[in-house]
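Posting for a labmate who doesn't have an account.
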Amino acid sequence: MLDLFRKSLRNKLLFIFIIIGFLPFLTLLVYTLFLSESKIVNKIIIEQLDRTKVVIKLIDNHLNALSKEVIFLSSLDLMDDLLAEDIDKRVSRLLTQKEDDLNLDISFMAVSLDSTIIASSDKNNTLKKQDIEKLHGDKYGTFIEDKNLYIFSSIYASFEKEKKIGYLILKYNLQNLDLYLTHHKTTYSYIVNHANDTIIGEDIPLKIDFNNQTKSIINSDYVVVYERLSSFLDNWHIVYAVDKSVALEFLYDFVKFMLYISFVIFIFILYLSIKQAKEIVKPIEELTRVVNNITKSHNYSSRLEITSQDEIATLTHSFNDMLQTTSSALKKLEDENKLRLKRFTQLINVFNTIIQTKSEDDCIEVSIEEIKKLTNKDELYFQKNQTILTDKEYTNIYVSDFENNKKIYFGSIELGVNKFEDKNEQDFYNSIASMITLQLDKIRLIQRTTSASKAKSAFISNMSHELRTPLNAIIGFAQYMIEYEELNEDQKETMANIESSAQYLLGMINEILDIAKIEAGKMEAHLESANILSIVQSSYNMLSPLAKEKKLKFDFIYDNFENKEYKTDPKMFKQIIVNLISNAIKFTQEGTIRLELYNDNKNIYVGVKDSGIGISKDDMKHLFNDFTQLQNVMQKSHKGTGLGLSLSKKMANILGGDITLESDGADMGTLCIFSLKIKI
């Protein structure tokens, strides 16, 4: 027995609890707190349910008696007086006497078929109208309105049994049922209609779900039972509520006593537990100390000494085994991490080497050399033919077919390995293959883009030069004909149209050539000190006649400009200003144009605000694209290349500035701002 106790920690704990008697005390306390209370409450529920059934039966008998009384009275021959509207008042006297006999808050009414109250125990009701719609079609029955129960029976003539002459109605105040309810300081009862919350008796704030089949509720204050009343009172329930604190007063006193005693027992248990815990916890504390040392020093060679034969000894032995296993696993993991780090470093170096290549052949050659360094094998080679199969491991390379938007086979690299022993090795070489694919795609895309760009720039440049030569000749001949030849007015107008059209084409070609120069990187800004105010003023003076011709108000404001020398390219600067003003005049049919020059500590600003056609928010993002013109009502009269704003913005960027547009929408005008960083 002692040996079993010495070897089992569980038995030690069980022995302590049994000695001090805590388990029996706990059982008694639980029984007292829960089972005793439950039994008392269940007994109260049974007693109150029996009481409700008795009361329901009494109420049912009471209402049945009243119903029989109404049926009996309606069958009396005396009721024939309704045909003569109760001239002798015999029916009224009978109803009054019957009301006095019953000694209840009720009233009888004899009602004719036209809803007139012929006789009543209440004199104030005589000759009034009574709603008998609910009575039609029924020989006798009941219905409820507000807090009144109406019991009725049809009245037939004594001389002709099938002839209905009216109704006898008993108006019964449901408050009469309060006589059947219990009125006690610890027990409350009331009758409630849950459909409209009508209550007879004491009103206690209880939330009751009358659809619940248990017919009882237990909350912190009351034990509540309820039952449905008879068919006379549909949707009505009788509720009994017993004050829980009074009913369980004795039990609560006993529980208080048990709790006081439990304090003494707790002190005794604590004393024994502390004494025994010192012996139990000691090896656990030693285990914790070793674990903390291992956590700080990462020395998994530590071991715990086994000094007992119980569960702690088993735990210590398992912990020592775990330390040995963990030490071996960490050593293996450390070796694997070193290998992974080495592979990762090698992969980065391979990537850095591959991305430096400039051609497809160079990329493949460099890639093979790098893989040879990784594998220390010289048998690696690249093959184009996909049909040749070998018994060695290889990695395939696929490149993008940009025209057909798909991947095509480019070749494969044989790795000189019979079989991968580790899947991670295969993933490693697949990563290299992916990098080779990306570099090949990059090389092919750059070559394709460069070729297309060179071809486009060469075409635009050649075509522009080829077109400008004959256009200059056309302009010269047209000017000569106008100046020196004797032409009539129609001929002069024709030659003038030829000259203006040629000038327009020459301007378009110059713009296209400028765009080509910018894209080719051949347009550079030649910075020099310039008088910005003079340049803007010159542009204003040059274009004012165009605004005047369209009867536009054209203002130039420079009050907030510090006039001094600034560094810029005067020619390019002026071309930007002229383009912006020309656009404003071109797309303003009537109204005003405002040219404003101002600066702050960092930038020079040239703003051109017009009251023209404006720009919608959807179109705003397309304005600076090459060869873009927006659809508008003035487009037919103002043709162009769609390069003006695009060219101006690119020139502004070359000068170190920018152009922004603002507009509230179509027909709301436009504000164009050219900003340029100050250089002195």
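Reply:
Got it, the structure tokens are right above this. The radius of gyration is 55 Å.
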